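Exercise 3.2. Students should predict the tertiary structure of the chain below and write it as structure tokens, then compare their answer with the key that follows.

Predict this chain's 3D structure.
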Amino acid sequence: MLRDVLTINTDEDIQRAFRNQNRWAFEGFDEEGRRIDIKYKRKTRNPHTNHVIVSVPLKYGGEHWSWSGVHIDLQRIRVADQSPTRAVYALPGLRARQDCPVRGRWDALARSTVAYC
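Answer key:
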């Protein structure tokens, strides 16, 4: 997700500026890894900006969203990850919810009969 992009930018403007101004971000990727599809735009509280939801190939998703920010025209845009599968890939080998030690501890505390204040 690209946060707070000005609404005057069209989809083509965003894609063109993204590729031209952020060439460092695509170093080492093949043509498939350079593909960024704009899915939709979400309105923000500011009527002059939108959050742009983009889609990248899944195998390149981790590298793309490790960026802290990108440039589109004269704006520095913050980048955020919204993929639901990101958490699963962060802990390799943990498939079930109860296998995660942190989540298991919190579940045990929530289900215990003793209340901690």
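Discussion points: The longest strand covers residues 37-43. The two ends are 38 Å apart (CA to CA).
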